[in-house]
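Subject: sequence -> structure tokens, single chain

Hey, anyone have a minute? Need the predicted structure for the following. Not urgent.
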Amino acid sequence: MNIFSKAIVLIIALFILPLSYSFAQEKFTISGYVKDGSNGESLIGAGVYVKEITQGTAANQYGFYSLTLDKGTYNVVFSFLSFKDTIITVVLDKNIRLNVDMAPKPIETKEFVVTGERSDKNVQGSQMGTTTLSIDQIKSLPAFMGEVDIIKTIQLLPGVQSAGEGNSGFYVRGGGPDENLILLDGANVYNASHLFGFFSIFNSDAINSVELIKGGMPAQYGGRLASVLDITMKEGNNQEFHAEGGIGIISSRLTLQGPIKKKKSSFIVSGRRTYVDVLLKPFISSSSQLKGSGYYFYDLNVKLNYEFSDKDKLYFSGYFGRDVFTYDNSETGFSVNVPWGNATLTARWNHLFNDKLFMNTSVIYTDYQFQSTFTADQFTFNLFSGIRDINAKWDLNYYPTIRHNIKFGANYTYHIFSPSSVTGSSGSVTFDPSQINHLYANEVALYLSDDFDLTDRIKLNGGIRYSGFQQIGPFYRYGHDDSGKIIDTTYTAPWKTVCFYQGLEPRFSIRYSLNLHSSIKAAYTINDQYMHLASLSTVTLPTDVWVPSSSLVKPEIGTQYSLGYFRNFKQDAFETSVEVYYKTMKNMIDYKDGSTYQDSYMDNFDKSFTFGQGWSYGVELFIKKNVGKFTGWIGYTLAYSFRNFPANNDSMTFPSKYDRRHDLSVVGTYNFNQHWAFSSQFVFATGDALTVETGRYIIENRIVPEYGERNNYRLPPYDRLDLSATYIRKKHEKYQSSWTFSIYNAYNRHNPYFIYPAQTGSVAFGTLQLTEKEVSLFPILPSVTWNFKF
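Reply:
Had a minute. Here:
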């Protein structure tokens, strides 16, 4: 029996298991949608709880829920962050469609108390390592240069590390940046950064929900080893027109939303652009080195939806973003143009077959491109890399009983990779070898999972995912002699198989309730990753290229074990948890020592790769206060991450560049009254690991550096305090505004960004002295942003 047959057998067995329960009593179903009554937005993850049986469920990504219960009378409680609980008494003697519009909680003048997400789902749910953040919570925290950033907020969670000073990249539990699956309305985002990593591409005004999964990844997600960051855009207000935005130091943003057909259809359009290039241009003198240079980025989010009926709804959404760096020196004839960015288009159809079976079908287009053009006199040089996907998804939710939530579906993606394509021209002569650098692949997946209550104390989530990856032609494989010279070529025709990989990826997690307020959870997951980010730098840059698995590059395989204790206090006002994990990673890729990006030009993309393994382990502590005037959390991680590549570092194991022993975040928000709110965040982390020179030799009056073991040096520890204050002006009937004042790096800590070798004196006179210099990036940075809404 081959692996595909085994997958089918396991999927059928897992699907039949919950259907094997007998139904001794007559049962009926309550189902419907949970929405924000003020604007029609779906309340993703809203709690639906039945008091009489102390059980419930959560609304899915589109606000749909379904409960199948014995015939009887029940009090059903609907709850969601910052909304009034809605309690509805239901006489269940037939199937009932119950759509609920929840009302936001009002702010009382006499006693201003902020109520957060008071629930016990962190204790009672089977999922581990999962965090859901509200946009209001994200917006309340200090912002880097006034720019609210989703990814910088998740960097404050335990197990998540920042990629460096000011950087919006992130590492999860010892994994690399390419091991994070970042989704925007279901579309893969391959580069989530602006300004070479200092800002993320996500405009918070256009975002509805943010969920991070770093352990026990559900079966509907795949293709990455470390984490899932699932971001859903707002649908748009379907009742009245609204506009909101903000003007900051480096950028402004504007969001428009409203009904196309009231309570049936709506739209949202959200844009953001920096304008530092426009503001500085008049002040740059003709003799300045900055003359002729410019940089800006922009984002545009668009979404439309139409509700045909309770059973059918269409969504169309898109994201378009670019960074553009330019330099033009008319005197020398030298110019540079470097644009890069993402474009995504998503079309979704929601269909409700019946009260228990919900379907979502998606067609998704993703395009990430990096391009650089250099012109000098008559010569033009172009470098292009990118990845383009056409993706079809079929996802279903089936709710057989209140104890079961079954998800199953299929996914197909057609990939077009452009690892490194080069063109050039000089006068009438054109150099264009780009056609040999396009790579093509098919990726498929089938999955099934069941989240079910085995007993009142034991909750299980079992899942299986089958995945397959096929690199196809046209493709040229080059043969080399001992000196590296190409001596022969093997050609694979279009759509013919170059190589094929497949795998089974089981997922399993269990929760055991000790009592109503505490539980123990354990999880085991296997993930296969068929795409890899090839990087020679210590940080994630647009020049890094995505490459597929090939006849030389095998899929990465990650296995993770995790165990946690979860406890809530004072009626769920405080959440606490301790999680430990151990993860292994096989078939990891790295560049061979001494390699450069140019080594693969006019040759196979995988020529310079070497392969090895990695492993990481650690413990994460988390305490969060959810309610009251003061809210916030403390997260601490003790972690280890190692790599071993037999062809590098003399085959010795070394700490990965994601290895950070200690990582501490302290986050707090204090709502003083209706007009003033204050927040702060403090971070401390072990310094990054990097490779530095261990010595230098002088040969024929030339300085020759010698390097030691890989990542043999640690930068000093990193620490920083950020502060912010928000003044909310008196709300008018149709208009409101606020001012946010932020200070980044409040005590002006000079955190090292990188080090470089420096020298003084002369070799000839024997006065040469060599030292290492540290460079800090950001001093204390105040900023101010005016936000408005009408």
